[in-house]
Amino acid sequence: MDMSAFDTLTIAMPKGRIFGEATELLRQAGVPLPADVSEDSRKLTVSAPEAGLSFLLVKPVDVPTYVEHGVADLGVVGKDVLLEEARDVYELLDLGISPCHMAVAGLPDWSPVLHPKVATKYPRIADRYFREQGQQVEVIKLNGSVELAPLIGLADRIVDIVSTGRTLKENGLTELEHITDITSRLIANRASYRLKSGRIQDLYEKLASVVEKGEPV
Ligand SMILES: Nc1ncnc2c1ncn2[C@@H]1O[C@H](COP(=O)(O)OP(=O)(O)OP(=O)(O)O)[C@@H](O)[C@H]1O
Ligand SMILES: O=P(O)(O)OC[C@H]1O[C@H](OP(=O)(O)OP(=O)(O)O)[C@H](O)[C@@H]1O
Predict the structure, then answer these.
(1) pLDDT digit string, tens, across residues 126-164
(2) Ligand 2 contacts CB of residue 147 (under 6 A)
(3) Whether the CB of 163 sits within 6 Å of ligand 1
(4) What is the 161 CA–ligand 2 centroid distance (Å)?
(5) Parallel/antiparallel/unpaired status of strands 53-58 and 9-14
(6) Using an 8 Å Cβ cutoff, are 179 and 159 in contact?
(7) Separation CA 24–CA 168 (nearest Å)
(8) Which is one Gene Ontology cellular component term of this protein (predicted)?
(9) For 156-209, how does the pLDDT look when each residue is reduced to its tens digit (9 = 90+)?
(10) What percent of the chain has pLDDT above 70?
């Protein structure tokens, strides 16, 4: 039996790094994911009407936008994106997947300057971090290959994600300060959270129980 649009839950899924772990977690929680909710698929929206579910396959940084505007009821997204985008959404659950951390890094022989230049994909996080440290910096926004900046004199330091540490190591950089730990989160649209509370609560509980068991996804 197909459910009405009112009962359908739309979930914004991040393509890329988080995707595999996120879909595996949903499967473990008993969510029937259609075969074309897959990294190989070029489809951007997939529905499973019999389960009352619909999936949007989107860029990770856009997940909070879809959820804030209510075109998705729920989303899966990294805490880094939530901190950077500062969207008006509920953060429901730490899914514990795709762990990494945000750090300040630089050349090992870096010596302090009064107003360092900081290159980053995360200008808000960097701004807030250095403000809290009482340090004035000039933030330079980049969209990738951030580790290059100190090597070629574009910046004195970087703020970026560290996971294995391989990118820092291979570029001769060293981690200077740990800013915050990052994992992926389940987020919800504020109105959906009230209007679809039964379905959202049901999925929340199933996911929370999988996360609590802590089995590798
Ligand atoms: N080593 C890592 N580097 C970057 N993000 C990581 C890492 N490990 C886990 N993550 C998580 O994965 C998310 C980024 O995923 P992904 O790299 O697919 O997206 P993206 O940054 O939009 O990709 P792109 O590099 O194409 O711009 C981050 O928001 C973060 O929460
Ligand atoms: O500690 P590691 O395991 O090396 O992972 C960290 C690196 O991975 C990410 O870059 P990404 O691969 O997304 O490329 P980008 O330079 O295009 O952002 C991140 O921005 C770091 O550069």
Answers:
(1) 999 999 999 999 999 999 999 999 999 999 999 999 999
(2) yes
(3) yes
(4) 7
(5) parallel
(6) yes
(7) 29
(8) cytoplasm
(9) 999 999 999 999 999 999 999 999 999 999 999 999 999 999 999 999 999 999
(10) 96
Spatial separation of the C-alpha atoms in residues 43 and 66, rounded to whole Å: 17
Q: Say if ligand 2 is within 6 A of residue 144 CB.
A: yes
60 phi, psi to nearest 5 deg: -50, -40
Tokens of 66: 């879809």
Using an 8 Å Cβ cutoff, are 118 and 158 in contact?
yes
Q: Which 3 state secondary structure label does DSSP give 211?
A: helix
Q: Are 184 and 74 in contact (CB under 8 A)?
A: no
Residue 37 predicted with pLDDT over 80: no
Taken in order 41, 46, 48, 52, the sign of the CA dihedral is positive
pLDDT of residue 39: 82
Query: Rounded to an integer, what distance in angstroms lies between the CA atom of residue 135 and that of residue 126?
Result: 11
The sign of the CA dihedral 26, 30, 33, 35 is positive
Domains delineated in the chain: 9-98+183-213 (3.40.190.10), 100-181 (3.40.190.10)
Distance between CA atoms of residues 140 and 119, nearest Å: 5
Which residues does 74 contact at the CB level (< 8 Å), separation at least 6?
Answer: 9, 10, 11, 12, 67, 92, 186, 187, 188, 189, 192, 200, 203
